[in-house]
Amino acid sequence: MSRYHSEKRYKRKRRGHYSHYKCRGKREKRATVRIYISETILGAEFESLVLRIVDAIFSLDKNQEIQEFFKHKPSEDEMRSYMMAHAQESVRTIHTGFKKAQNLIINGLIQIQSEIKKAKEQLKEARRQKSDKKEICLEKVNILEYKETVLKHLADTIFWHLIEGKLYIARRFYQNAPGSKNLEDTNYKSVLLVADKINENPDNFVLLADITSYVQIGDLFGIIDGKRNLIEVKEGERNGEILEDMDAVNNSYLSISEFFEKYKERPKDVEQIRRILKQKIVANDEINIINTDSGHDPVTDRNIKIYTPKEATPYFYDELHDLEKQLMTRNFWAYTVVDSCLHIGLYKNKWKTLGRPLLEAIAKEQNIEHKIIVDARSVMKTMDCSLLFLPFSRQLIIDILLGKVLMFLMLDIDKFMKLFEYYGTTCSWTSRKEATMLNESTKNLNLYLNGNRAIKMKNVHGVESIMTMGGLAKIKFNHIRPTYMAYSSNYFTNEDFDE
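The structure assignment produced for this chain is given below.
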């Protein structure tokens, strides 16, 4: 973990590198379509901002040479060779786009968060006076908060790039800290100054954590010197002095005894030193897990190991790609079912209001007793794969993001459980009492509960587990096939837990 004082000069480091193509290769090549701007409840100005940010995030998509290369549908080996030959050029193009997108997001958030604050004051006053305008004020607040969510989701998209689409890394950056702050209430200006200094190097890029929806460790995260880096920015003379002295100790310019002698009569500074050291230990542990897939977990205080699947993860991209073709043909709606248990619908224009009721009607007709129905946009409140990586055309993705097209997913839990049984894993519902006890003993997990009952599983090796919302999110938001989720339940053996 790196630490910067906001007034400390940053020295450039040598070239950094990471792959944009890994994320690009996971989705179908987007169709080339003309992006148009149309008035919606969010407004043409906001739509224009979103389009500019998306274009900046996916700056490589505007590169003519790359477009020509992908027209020929290159193989994995060809993509790898091309990436190696154009690595530095591509990274610099990506970083330039990220920097532009970050500045647009920051400016947009500052404006919208200011408007939210005013709108909430107006709503409070309307409620106090029992005014008829309170519904109008509430709608205004909801629209502004949705705009804020969209901008933060675009920042999450940049973060998803930086971690190469690895879900387990994204989840490590969420610390269950309640609420969120407006940028103006943070030290974002000092953090931005540090980011700008680092980002002067075209091979580096760092992202402000406070503009994302779930990054809760550090102030900056990104690529420096070809490696992922987590940075804590401290401001003020006192923090500057402490950080300078800590650097002196690390570089053997100041002995530990001299360090503690200096601060022994300054209890407030000693407490601050303890906080800084704790933050550093946590961040170093997290970065070590991220870079090596193993290490000490500061949350559970246990050593953990991330297991990599033995084969490529199968996604239901083909079904989603065909869904868009359906929508283009029918114009108003499209519908498909994946692995007999996952129902997906796309709805536009007047059919938008019918999307969820139609899935409810299907569930009733097919006697689906246990189900989950979600709006695809709810991913913006999670740590999962960004909407921008859906295997749809750019225009359809933007339409979903802005609410012009609605996408609903319904998972039939009972049929999903049967997939597990096909691969030898037994599934059963717990009692309400047992579910309550499990919920208490596994507070770090978000269990799937229906009627206050959970689902227990035991795989072919006798390893027991509980169905969680995080596991189901891999299907709903990360587009992993339900059959693979059932099949991979047999990866774990008792030996894995004996290590």
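Interim note for the steering committee: The CA atoms of residues 475 and 482 lie 6 Å apart. The radius of gyration is 25 Å.
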